[in-house]
Amino acid sequence: MLTNTTFVSLLLFWLASRARGATVTWGQVNKYASTLHAQDVYLPRDNSTDADADADVEVVADVVYGLQNVDGYTITAVHAYDMTPLEEHGGDGGTAQLLSGGVGQKHATVRFKRHSTIDQLPTVHFQLVIYGLAL
Q1: How deeply is 31 buried, as exposed, middle or buried, from its count of CB atoms within 10 A (0-12, 13-18, 19+)?
Q2: What is the spatial distance between Cα 48 and Cα 21, in angstroms, rounded to a whole number?
Q3: 3-class DSSP state of 15
Q4: I need a surface site. Which of 9, 51, 62, 103 has the fewest CB within 10 A?
Q5: 86 — phi, psi (to 5°)?
Q6: What is the pLDDT of residues 87-116, one digit of tens each?
Q7: Which of 37, 36, 40 is nearest to 112 (CA)?
Q8: Helix (H) or strand (E) segment spanning residue 12
Q9: 97: Cβ contacts below 8 Å, ≥ 6 apart
């Protein structure tokens, strides 16, 4: 017979084994945190037809938050969700990287990069959510 702890552990293991994509979290959201910024990021396929174009062109997008952070909120968490459907390339459309700022700061820059190996997807979809507190 399974105890509650064993059941929860098995459930978490199963969920973790099915998780795919580049969903990344920096920091932690508590019950007092507010959503400071939410944005959908779409990375289209590189359709360059130029014969001189580099074959390994990376499709990237940088999202900058905090240039207009006049309310003084401090960032407590940054979530970058890979919204690529599981049916399409296993839900893994690209990567997200925190370039500057982030947790404990009043600004953040996140770079989203499309995997170059998934040419069959017309667009890769990410969702960025930044949380913070007025400290």
Answers
A1: exposed
A2: 26
A3: helix
A4: 51
A5: -60, -30
A6: 655 556 788 899 999 999 999 999 998 876
A7: 40
A8: helix 4-18
A9: 110, 111, 113
Please give the structure tokens belonging to residue 9. Answer: 């552990």
CA distance linking residue 78 with residue 129, whole number of Å: 6
Mean pLDDT of 45-64: 67
Give pLDDT, residue 108: 93
**DSSP string computed for 41-61:** EEEE------TTS-TT---EE
> For residues 33 and 74, is the Cβ–Cβ distance under 8 A?
no
Residue 129, beta-bridge partner list: 38, 79
Q: Beta strands of 13-122 (E only): which ranges?
A: 24-27, 34-44, 60-65, 73-82, 94-101, 108-114
- Which of 28, 30, 37, 45 has its CA nearest to residue 84? 45
Burial-class residue 126 by CB neighbours within 10 Å (0-12, 13-18, 19+): buried
Token pair of 113, please?
Answer: 């990069």
- For the stretch 7-24, pLDDT in tens is 545 444 444 334 445 688
